[in-house]
Every structure is written in structure tokens, then in C-alpha cells.
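lol so apparently i was supposed to do this last week
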Amino acid sequence: MKKFNGITSLLFFAVSMLLGLYILWANNVNLAILYVILLLAAAVLIPYVYCTKCPCRKTNCAHVFPGLITRFMPDRDSENYTVFDWTLVMIFMGLLIVLPQFWLYENILLFSIFWISSIIAGIQILFFICKTCDNKKCILCGQRS
Ligand code: SF4
Ligand code: SF4
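anyway here it is w/ iron/sulfur cluster bound
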């Protein structure tokens, strides 16, 4: 069940990001290209700064794919998360969410799908994955004492 939530939450996020890319492409091609670059960079950098420090990544990654990506990255299990790690993840996530909003809010249907998908993904992660995640270094982990 954890992996079901892990994979489907990524799919819901993917729906939001694709809608973001679509709306940017329709209104500002330069920003759409920047968005693609941000997506590709996030797909590599977030697993590098976050997942390489996660003890679940080789055996029990709920999202499956980030864990697989880190097989090609150096092992950093022994290090704790730093302000830099958190800041980088927040900047990428923030930009990917905020950039399309200027045009999305003009289209109530796409705006609604974007936010409903993102909120469902967030709920799946917070309430069905983090609670039983073994990554005790993460502040969202429900196993931390
Ligand atoms: S469970 Fe660990 S490896 Fe999987 S996405 Fe989360 S931090 Fe990355
Ligand atoms: S506690 Fe949640 S956010 Fe943190 S690594 Fe685990 S699944 Fe990801």
C-alpha cells in the first residue's frame, strides 16, 4: 500500500507539472523552456541532495523511482540533512509550483486540476507514507522519537 501511494503521488505531481508546462508553453515559450530545465534539474538534484542520504533508497523507497535513480549516485547515508539540502529542495519545489500560477489562475479548470492533484499527492505522502517511513533524518518522518 505504501508503494501504491508512493507511485500514485508521483503521478499526481506529474499531472500538475505537465499542466504547468502546458500553460507556460501556451503563454510564454521562454518560461516553458526554463520550466523543462527546472524539471530535469529537479529530477537529478533532489534525489542527489535528499535521497542519497535516505536509508530506504536501496531497499524500501516508497516512491520507487527516486530510489532507483540514486543507484547511480554516491552513497551519503551517513550524513544528516543540512540547511542547504532543505533550501535546495524548497527552491525547486517552490519554483515548479509558483511559475505557472500567473496564467493558471486565469483558467479555473486547469487551476483546479493542478491544485487538486498536488493536494492529493501531498495528503498521500504526509498521511500514508511519512508516518511509516524509515528515514528518521527527515523531519516529516513519523518514526522519529
Ligand atoms: S523514501 Fe527516501 S529514497 Fe525514496 S523518495 Fe523518499 S527520500 Fe528519496
Ligand atoms: S518522511 Fe516523508 S518526506 Fe521524509 S523521506 Fe520519508 S516519505 Fe519522504
